[in-house]
Write a structure and sequence with these properties.
single chain, alpha+beta, DNA Binding (I), subunit A, 4-stranded mixed β-sheet, disordered N terminus, disordered C terminus, binds zinc ion
Length: 190
């Protein structure tokens, strides 16, 4: 039998649940793994997750009142892939949203460190985040030819490394019950 809940108020939409792996670490840091309350409750009813913390808010079915979960943990551990996908976002995250030539944060593009015309590939090891002025200045040259220095050599990050970087970029919304499972503060203090 399906259970249908009628939300008490539209603000329920702002009650996401933080989703932890079975080891109580977030499934993902960046973007932070959160589910909307409908998905979270469904997982609760399917007994795929344990409720770790709850909101004060309740939803009502004809027969039950239930507090919305604010933190849930998967019962079964999900093995994380060793390497993240090679996406624009993940590449910017690896480079901390910073131009790898001048250190500026802001509007970024991608630089082929070894230019394509020289056979440079579009790969983790040959792409660096760059601001538009640096990208234009470098043009179709190698860093050596342009006398520009990379802050770090582009590399293929592991998921572990990318998660570690993601911790330094907390999302805008953090419910207080999530803080015990996240490490932003200690990371930022380092
Ligand atoms: Zn720059």
């Amino acid at each position: 039998m399906g259970v249908h809940f009628a939300p008490q108020s539209p603000s329920l939409e702002a009650s996401p649940a933080l989703i932890l792996n079975a080891d109580y670490r977030p499934l993902s840091y960046f973007p932070l793994s959160i589910w909307n309350w409908q998905t979270a409750l469904k997982a609760v009813f399917l007994e795929r997750v344990d409720i770790i913390a709850e909101y004060d808010r309740e939803v009502h079915s004809p027969t039950t009142a239930l507090k919305l979960p604010s933190v849930i943990a998967l019962k079964k551990y999900v093995r994380q892939p060793q390497y993240p996908a090679f996406t624009r976002f993940n590449l910017f995250l690896r480079d901390r949203f910073t131009c790898q030539y001048c250190g500026m944060k802001g509007e970024l593009t991608f630089d082929h460190v070894v230019p394509r015309a020289y056979g440079g590939r579009t790969s983790w090891a040959n792409i660096a985040a760059a601001c538009i002025p640096c990208n234009l200045k470098k043009g179709g040259r190698t860093p050596e030819e342009a006398h520009m220095h990379l802050l770090q050599k582009p590399f293929k990050p592991t998921n572990h490394q990318l998660h570690a970087i993601g911790r330094a970029f907390p999302p805008n919304y953090l419910h207080e019950s999530w803080r015990d499972y996240l490490y932003w503060d200690s990371e930022l203090e380092r």
